[in-house]
Amino acid sequence: MTGFLFVAKDLPSSWWICAGLVVAFLIFHTFTVPSHLRHLPRVPIFPLLISYLSGEVEDVRIKRLILPYANERGEGLVLVWALGRWMIHILDYKLAAQMSDNMNLFPKELPPDGLLLWRFIGGSNVLMANGDKWRKHSRVIRDAFGLPIPVDLFTSLAKNLFAVISPPSSPSDSHTVDFSELAQRFALDAVGSSVLGHDFDAIRTESLFVREYNGIMHDIANPIYLIAPWLERIVPRKEVVNRMDSLVDKFKQLLQAKKDEPGDDMMTLMLKDPEMSDEELRDNMVVLFIAGHDTSAGGLSTLIYFLATHPEIQEAAREEVLRVLGPTADPSVGTLSATSLPYLNACIREALRINTPISYIVPRAPINGVTLGKYYIPPNTSLIYNIYAVHHNDSVWGDPKAFRPARFLEKGTPRAAMVKDAWVPFATGPRQCPARNFALYEQRALAVMLLREYEWSLPENSIHKNGLRNAFSPFALTLPHDLHITFTKKKH
Ligand code: HEM
Ligand SMILES: *[C@@H]1O[C@H](CO)[C@@H](O)[C@H](O)[C@H]1NC(C)=O
Ligand SMILES: *[C@@H]1O[C@H](CO)[C@@H](O)[C@H](O)[C@H]1NC(C)=O
Question: Where does the source fall among the domains of life (predicted)?
């Protein structure tokens, strides 16, 4: 430190002038709106900057800065500065549908160079590919999701979870557990066994695979490298890259094991497709692993939270479940359908609306200039479908902050039609989530099992007493964290 001061003091003043100019240029460069985007309404930059620097979570930033700005001006899309990049956020579901329906005009943007997440996911998979490549991946994945919904698996995993929430050896009826963590383990086992064809046994054991994955995701999210992905080339993180490559290798081994020992899982089906190379299958495996568990876990945690804070809604859902399924019968595809359990389904839809697991999707970038609403969008501009904002639009929902499942039970009114189109947790258009049905069954299955086994509430000292709090996520995931819940076994 003193060495540095000594050197700095001795520098000639021309050096300081140069350094000053460079810093001024960098500041000017990062904060100046490029001329081709200046016609767009733009959220004030300094509150955004402070929000990023203070580590504010995405959903709070959207509610506090982006939505109020757009509402005041009646704008359906706004320009948002995000750590040195300018992006257009689409906040109106009609404009978003226009973009989502046309994937030729609005392909997914190539990810920024260097960001380790893209090295992890790989390039040739259903999530990032465009055009004919995407069509090939999508066909294979959609065929796989055409397999019967594994309701029996969800049911037996729920029973595994009971044994962790209230161990049979424990004399007590009441147990407080970190449900956000258990939900992640449940969702991982669900996607592991049915989609990837590998039993992580994550509910009952501490899976090494999972620990490595969580560690890598934590390192990928290092704020310094997120702000400046090009640093990855200048100061490469060899150790992280090695760990990542070795995990990707493990996916390759799972794939090989699957070839030798086929099952009735989706991966076995995908392996039979002659058009898929091993590398493509591996990349899709990583995507399914990532896309398939945090999202579902977030949805489940949110649901359990809102049922805990609304005991009358929890009781109404339980009453429906007991009426339809009775106290002990294992659920089936029929008894678990949305029409069979309309009230529980409405609760799940409301949870996915109010705390949307994927708050916004991978940016699209139009190849040619296009018009969206009243604005011209130049080619190569990042367009983000801000699902969270659509789910919190006052004029669509009336009371967006309230957890009110009944809004999904309204029929035949103009509001009901709007609600149907503006509920988009799985996005819309051809690139919407291929696992939508799978995920909704998974949510209903666990909810049914929990409602019959327990009653639950928030413990007195919960950090969520004054509203649900989400973890910080650089990848637009909105997931509750440290959600401790007190489960009390029901008397049969
Ligand atoms: C509640 C749970 C879930 C939610 C809210 C959700 C939401 C979404 C959304 C919003 C997209 C569009 C992303 C984009 O275009 O950038 C998407 C895509 C995708 N999701 Fe899900 N998802 C869920 C569960 C799952 C599960 C369980 C799986 C797999 C096991 C899965 C696999 C995928 C895949 C492969 C894509 C890419 C589709 C494509 O680009 O064609 N998702 N999901
Ligand atoms: C909210 O929804 C209405 C109806 O679709 C739309 O006109 C308005 O632009 C939306 N608000 C925002 C901020 O997108
Ligand atoms: C858009 O970006 C691509 C790749 O960065 C580039 O090749 C192309 O020339 C750009 N198009 C326009 C119109 O700027």
Answer: Eukaryota
In this predicted model, what pLDDT tens digit does every residue of 54-98 receive, in sequence order?
A: 888 999 999 999 999 999 999 999 999 887 789 999 999 999 999
Task: Pick the residue whose CA is nearest to atom 11 on ligand 1.
Answer: 433
Please identify which residue in the block is written with the tokens 């399924």. 325
71 lines ligand 2 (CB under 6 A): yes
Distance 291 CA to ligand 1 centre (A): 6
Structural domains present in the chain: 30-489 (1.10.630.10)
Q: Cβ(292) to ligand 1 under 6 A?
A: yes
* Cβ neighbours for 118, distance < 8 A, ≥ 6 positions apart: 111, 112, 128
Dihedral, CA of residue 475, residue 403, residue 91 and residue 187, to nearest 10: 30
> How many whole angstroms separate alpha carbon 342 and alpha carbon 310?
18
Instruction: Report the nearest-CA residue for atom 3 of ligand 3.
Output: 380
pLDDT given at position 6: 42
- The mean pLDDT value for 183-193 works out to 95
What digits encode the pLDDT tens for the residues 412-424? 888 899 999 999 9
Paired tokens of 100? 């989502």
Please choose from 66, 395, 415, 419 the residue to mutate so as to test ligand 2's pocket, defined by most ligand atoms within 8 A of CB.
Answer: 395
Closest residue to atom 9 of ligand 3, CA basis? 380
Closest C-alpha to ligand 1, atom 27: 292
